[in-house]
Write a structure and sequence with these properties.
By secondary structure, the chain is of the alpha+beta class. It contains five helices and eight strands. The chain has an eight-stranded antiparallel sheet, covered by helices on one side. Helix 4 packs across helix 5. The chain binds zinc ion (ZN).
């Protein structure tokens, strides 16, 4: 018996299916001391044990693998009648079939695991896709909300601009009214001053009569000789160009003293509060002439009104 035959026996022995005389003979070979067969048995058992449980492809020792594949191929190609099979053949077939089954199991487990991983990844992809779709929905909703908010802001801005326009118009109207009130208050102040002039016993009322340049005009002057001041009311004086003013004169004898300049409103009316005039001479006449804008120290233009105290 060459040693290759012993190694075949070792394969069968490793599977625990060696029996009868073959078992006795092989055990005697081992008992005689064969390290090669002992290693072979250990290696074969390890390979057969590890193959189905390993997650990685564990390559069986080359000799075992080659032998197994050869046997499987040969026995598949040329099946032998069962009646001619001795126990050894059965053992060899069992070794080959089990090893092949082990390899198939490894591939099967590997394939199953890969399939599991693929399915797991597919589930993850599906979950991610669902999340993405959901987030897209949220994003779209937020975009709509944002657009709605922007439209609302634009609408509010338009409303605000309209109200600001209204507020601006109201502000202008209020300012106009305030100016009118200020004017009226000023006039009221002047009229009160006139009333105070009237209220003292020494106050005199001077009527100024119209002269030829303005026949429809008239004026009244309230004169306070103690304070040497007064107020003048005119009516019916003609409109004058911008570079002209009316000037009032207080006259003592033949000496006229400037007593203020004034313009008339659209009705030809005017009100003038006289400044305190210098003394000590007693004024006996008052007159109104037309002078260049700003007035002059002595009269130069035509006289429109004249009255005596
Ligand atoms: Zn041996």
């Amino acid at each position: 018996m060459n040693h290759e035959a012993w190694l075949e026996q070792a394969d069968i022995y490793a599977l625990g299916v060696l029996d009868g005389d073959e078992l006795t003979t092989f055990e005697a070979h081992l008992a005689a001391g064969c390290p090669e067969c002992e290693r072979h048995i250990v290696t074969t058992r390890e390979a057969l044990t590890l193959l189905p449980h390993s997650l990685e492809l564990v390559a069986p020792p080359p000799t075992v693998k080659a032998r197994l594949l050869t046997q499987v191929a040969a026995e598949t190609a040329t099946p032998q009648p069962v009646t001619l099979l001795p126990g050894r053949w059965w053992g060899r077939t069992a070794v080959g079939a089990l090893a092949a089954a082990g390899l198939l199991l490894v591939f099967g487990v590997k394939l199953y695991q890969t399939r599991q991983e693929v399915q797991h990844l597919q589930r993850q992809v599906a979950a991610l896709r669902a999340t993405l779709t959901e987030q897209e929905g949220v994003l779209l909703a937020e975009r709509h909300e944002l657009q709605r908010a922007a439209e609302m802001v634009a609408s509010l801005q338009a409303e605000l601009a309209k109200r600001e326009g209204t507020v601006e118009a109201e502000r202008r109207e209020r300012e106009r009214v305030e100016r009118v009130v200020a004017t009226l208050q000023g006039e009221l102040g002047e009229h009160k001053a006139a009333l105070r002039l009237l209220s003292i016993p020494q106050a005199s009322l001077v009527r100024l009569a119209a002269l030829s340049p303005s026949p429809g005009a008239s004026a009244r002057l309230l004169w306070n000789p103690l304070a040497r001041t007064g107020v003048l009311f005119t009516s019916g004086l003609p409109q004058i160009p911008r570079d002209r003013v009316y000037e009032l004169w207080a006259i003592a004898g033949n000496e006229p003293v400037p007593a203020g300049i004034f313009e008339v409103d659209s009705a030809g009316d005017a009100f003038l509060r006289l400044p305190p005039l210098p003394g000590p001479k007693r004024f006996d006449k008052f007159a109104v002439t037309l002078e260049p804008a700003g007035g002059l120290p002595k009269p130069t233009g035509p006289m429109h009104l004249l009255g005596s105290l």
